[in-house]
Amino acid sequence: MAALRLLLCTALQTCVALSARAACRPCAPQAEPLKWIIVGGGPHGVHIATALLQQVPGVTTANLRIVDDNPELLHAWKTRTRDVGMTHLRSSASNHLDVREDALKKYAESSWYRRGRHVFIKYASIVGRDAHLRRTAVAGGRRGC
């Protein structure tokens, strides 16, 4: 419900009361109208945001948002993989966050993080930093409404 409220607030650039008890107040005005809203800050949402920013002309961190209830992008993925004891990625090296198919493999080869899920976590932080994805995240009510 909180993610839905954030999504509507962000999309409409105004608060939307989804229950009788919900407070409604204006959001801070956006510098540029939003063109893209991605629901979910997991691996798929981060990959889509990265692809849009790198490959679609006119998409910027000012007109794109990733809406997620968690405090940071990939938070649920990191938590779940840690909790189940996952030590290595199950997907092939071509399934990752960047647009280039070989990007994760090249990063792993050039890094001291040689094996396991830790290489993906470190790599994800670099991809997110390079794409300025933190500017796009709307997490748990910390931005906007």
UniProtKB/TrEMBL annotation:
Keywords, comma-separated and alphabetical: Signal
Domain FAD-dependent urate hydroxylase HpyO/Asp monooxygenase CreE-like FAD/NAD(P)-binding positions: 37-112
InterPro entries to which the protein is assigned, alphabetical: HpyO/CreE_NAD-binding
Record flagged with keyword Signal: yes
Extent of the signal sequence: 1-17
Annotated protein name in UniProt: FAD-dependent urate hydroxylase HpyO/Asp monooxygenase CreE-like FAD/NAD(P)-binding domain-containing protein
Species for this entry: Pelagomonas calceolata
